[in-house]
Structure formats: C-alpha cells, structure tokens
Amino acid sequence: MSIQVKNIRKEFGSFTALKDVSLDFPTGELVALLGPSGCGKTTLLRIIAGLESADSGQVLLDGADASDTHVRERQVGFVFQHYALFRHMSVFDNVAFGMRMKPRRERPSESAIKAKVTELLKLVQLDWVADRFPSQLSGGQRQRIALARALAVEPRVLLLDEPFGALDAKVRKELRRWLRRLHDELHITSIFVTHDQEEALEVADRVVLMDHGKVEQVGTPEEVYRHPASPFVYGFLGSVNLFHGRVEGDAVHVGDDLLFRDKVAFGNGAEVFAFARPHELNIVIDPQETSGVAAKISRILAFGVTARIELDGLNGSTGQLFEVEITRDEVARLGLEEGQAVRLLPSRLRVFEREKAAIAEGSAPNWVI
Amino acid sequence: MAASRTFRVLPGFGLSLGYTLAWLSLIVLIPLVAVFVKAGSLGLDHFLAAVSSPRVIASYKLTFGASLIAALINTFFGLMLAWALVRYSFPGKRLVDALVDLPFALPTAVAGIALTALYAKNGWVGKLLEPLGIQVAFTPLGVLVALVFIGLPFVVRTVQPILEDLDTEYEEAAVSLGANRWQAFRYVVFPTVLPALMTGFAMAFARAVGEYGSVIFIAGNIPMVSEITPLMIITKLEQYDYAGATAIAVVMLLISFVLLLVINGLQAWTAKRTGRER
C-alpha cells in the first residue's frame, strides 16, 4: 500500500517538529527516515501511524485521506523502540493479542490464532520461546517478537521506530540483515526511523534525510551517499572533511593555501563550504609543493585494511581536524610519521556556497521518492 | 584462613542484623507473645467463652465485614484517583495530590468528630440524607464511612508510582494492534497495576480492621449493632478483664494474619502467572 503525506506541520509548544513535510512512499518499499535526534523523524512516523495528529496537512493511505482515521482502524503495524511487549503476557499471548482484540464476529477461532502465532514465530525464528515471558528474552529476541506481534494483525504498512536503537552493535547488525531478508519475503510497505546512517544505507531501498523538521534529500542509498544535495547530507552521511573556503578566480582558497583549481560556479569572493571524504584526500610530502592545504600529522591509525591518518590544519585552517584514508602500503611508501608537516590535495571535492546553504532552510519542495 | 572468609563490600552485617532482630523483638514480637501468654492464662473453656459471646461475634462481623467493603471501595476509587492524578493535568492537581494524604496525617479522633458532625441528623450531609431514610451516624453504615475515609491513601499511594512508570507506549501498542480503550485498560493497564492494587487493598484492609479513633464517635457503639472489635477489647479492659481482652485480641490477630497470608498468596500467584516471579 502506498503512503502519502502532504504538507504536514506539527508544533509542540514553541518547538516546530515538522515544517511542511510532503513525501510519497510507494508500495512495497522499505524506506528509512534518517536524521539526527530532534529532526522530527519519529514525529512523522507517529503521525503516519495515527498515534499523533498533525496540526495541518494530510496523510493518505492508498490514496484515501486517513487524517481523521483512528490508529485502531489504520491497519498499521507499529514497532516501538523499546519493544513495548506486554510484560505480564507470554510471548504467545503477546503475538496473539491483536487477533484476540478483534470484535467477536471477526475474531479467528482459538485454533486459527494458534496456527497463525506459530507461523509468525517461525517467521521470526523464535517458535521455541512461545511460553516464555518477555523478561526472559534478550533484546534482539524481544524486538523480533514485537515485529511478529505487529505482523499478526496483517497490517497494510509496517512502521518501525528506531527498531535497533536499544541493541548492541553485533545484534544490531544481524537484525539489520534479517529485517532486509524479511522485507524481501513479505514486500510490505515499510518505513523505519533511524539516526544511524550505516543502518539506513545498508537496509533501505530509499533513504529520506531529515533535519530540523524538513526533508533534506530523498534517494537510493547510493544516490544520497554519492550525490549529497546539501552540506547537511554530506556531513551526516559518512565521515567527511570540511574546508571553509573562499572563491578567488577559478580556484578555492583556504586562507592563503590553494585548495582546488577548477571551474567554480560561484562568483569571485564567495564564501564556500568544501567537502571531501577521507579517501578523497591525497597526502603530499614534497616540501616544494605549493598547492594543497598545509597540515600536520597528529596520529596514524594503521590497524585496518586501510590506514587512517589524523591531521591538524596549519596556516589558514588552524584548529581544524582532518582525516585521510589511504592504504597501509601508501603509508610505508611515503614514510609518514606523526608530527610531520604535509599538504592535503583533494582528488574530488564538493563545494556548496555558504549563503545558498542558509537560504535552502526556508523552502519545502515536495520530494517524490 | 583469611582466604576462606567471604568478603563483603558493606561492613557491619553482623551488627546491623543483630540490632534489627533485637529491635524487632522488643517492639513487635515480645508484645505479640505477651498477648498469647496472657490469653493462655485463661484456659480453653474461658477463652472460647470470651471470644464467642454473641456480642463479640457481632463485633467481628462488623469489623471484618465493614473493613472488607471499605477496602474494596477504596481499591476502586483509589485506582480512579491515582489514574486521574497520573494521567491528567488539571488546575489544583498538586493540592488534590496533597489532600490524599490527609487521612494519614489527621488525628483519627479529629476525623471521627468531623465525620460525626457531618453525618449526624442535623449535620450538613446527614440533613440531606435524613429525608431519604438513610441514617449514617450511629449505624454500621457510619462505621463504613469512617473506614473508607481512613483507608483512602493506601491504594492511591501504592498504585500511583506503578502507573507513573507505565509508559504510554504500552497502551499505544495495544491500540495500534486494534484494541479499543476498554480492552487496552482491561488487558494491558489493569494486569500491570494489579499487584500494587492488591498491596494497597491489603494495607487499607489491615488499617481498617485496627481502626479505633475515627470509628468510635460515628459508630454510636450500640451493642450487637455498631460495636467494633477494638471497642470490645477496650470495654473488657475497662472492666479489668485483661485476660478476656487479650483473648479477643488473639482472635483478631489470627484472622488478620490469615487474611494477609491469603492476600500474599494471591500476589505470589499472580506474579507467577504473569512471569514476574524471580
């Protein structure tokens, strides 16, 4: 089932949680709402579920306006961050809850309920814990039960609020893959909220990036990672080096250092943000080299496949920290040492005009995924 | 030698346990034993005669019956009051919250006089009830009113923290699974507060059984009608029948003990049934 939200606004007192958000979620996709805490992603999810009501705007489920429909009738499966399993009920009763709450004439027989619960517990690979209580399960198991419980009422959409937020790193990773596989089996339109960019990029078909109550960018994981539409998206997805630069002629300067020489679309003298990923920076040790940003190596971390070099900016970028990723062979070939003064040359750079970035705050385009 | 000793982080276990036991004995156990010893001096025949005279039996019925009903009433309204205090915000909420403790703080005699003045035939409330043929003061109904009054804080104060801890997430989960308001309360909220509710009930009941000061004024103390058991003990004492008084005390003690045991058993049973057992 498709979900559309149109011009949603929501305020909590003087705090604006959502500023005129419009989004289309097509049928059968797994979409991530990604953003820092307080960006409004959970509020949006709760409004779609009907647990919260918007101050203005519409929620359309399958094209029909559901804004005034009670959460009970929206047929959405909602999975809570802290599972919200009923502590006084066994796992079986938890999963059966939704079916047992139906009006008598719609309620399946107890044997049908039993069959359905067993099937769902098998689906989440936990059929052996049916008689246990939630307190006897691990966090990952609880979250899977919560999912089974939400699926039991055969929801038209599945909404997950930070589903892996309360789990430790290893379990989180396992559950992530598991959720992806489950979605590939069920093909139920799903939206999940997360502040973890890795999680969003890894699991979702589409990623919606949100900040300060508005949508920053929508796209496939690859699109948003490779072509960030705003400085916020660039900074939020993956680690990044930021240069505060100034356009002079056809080059970007940081202080007196020349960062990059290329056709720049901005006028002479424009203040810009320039972004480069750690692997997009080259280290130059030649003291004769005059282009690039001067920096001093503060640490070399060489325990992975690639080495991570941490640097302190010099001259125009004093006080800034940079991070470069190169192979370990490269470190050995260059003979890099801590304390060494080098220059950083970007192989790829993304430049945003500083004023444009500020202006973009006000606009609210309708993002179609 | 030293290695075989179990190491405790907190010092003074022996001292504090010894002190606690000594204190408990002095304050609770020795007086209780004295009650049994004193009652034992009566001999079985006299004991039975003392505790089963019709007037005493009538007082048991009133004390335990009225206490039970009062505790039930308090359980119901206490839950509602706690719910209102936790879930809603309204002007004067803090004042209402503070007022709940009034029956704790008020000297019972003051409460008794106030209630009597209100419910007597010429009192504010009594005046209104009189034409309807309802008489409260100096009847068993008056006893009930006083017991409801003094038992009010118990259920509220035991249920309130549990309700505060109960995240609205649970109700949201229930509703998103298709439960209506009543079902969400019946199957999610109520089972969660049930143990606290039973504790509150037990405490309100125990307090009501032992209540003297506030009841004695409004009860009227008519033999066979509105005499409570603690009054029977006082009456015996005033007649210098110490053994008889303690005999009745023993019976009260035993009934209360058995009832609390039953309630504890019920709590253990619900805990086991709902996976809270540790």
UniProtKB/TrEMBL annotation, chain A:
Domain ABC transporter positions: 3-237
Q: Which Pfam families match?
A: ABC_tran, CysA_C_terminal, TOBE_3
Query: Domain of life here?
Result: Bacteria
Keywords of the record, alphabetical order, are: ATP-binding, Cell membrane, Membrane, Nucleotide-binding, Sulfate transport, Translocase, Transport
Please give the Gene Ontology molecular function terms for this protein.
Answer: ABC-type sulfate transporter activity; ATP binding; ATP hydrolysis activity
A Gene Ontology term for the protein's cellular component? ATP-binding cassette (ABC) transporter complex
What is the protein name stated in its UniProt record?
Sulfate ABC transporter ATP-binding protein
Organism lineage reads as: Bacteria, Pseudomonadati, Pseudomonadota, Betaproteobacteria, Rhodocyclales
Automatic annotation (TrEMBL), chain B:
Q: Which GO terms describe its molecular function?
A: ABC-type sulfate transporter activity
Kindly give the Pfam families that the UniProt entry links to this protein.
BPD_transp_1
NCBIfam families membership:
3a0106s02 (TIGR00969), permease_CysT (TIGR02139)
Q: So what does this one do?
A: Part of the ABC transporter complex (TC 3.A.1.6.1) involved in sulfate/thiosulfate import. Part of the ABC transporter complex CysAWTP (TC 3.A.1.6.1) involved in sulfate/thiosulfate import. Probably responsible for the translocation of the substrate across the membrane.
Q: Which CDD domains match?
A: TM_PBP2
Positions of transmembrane segments: 21-44, 64-86, 98-120, 132-156, 187-206, 242-263
User: What protein is this chain from?
Assistant: Sulfate transport system permease protein CysT
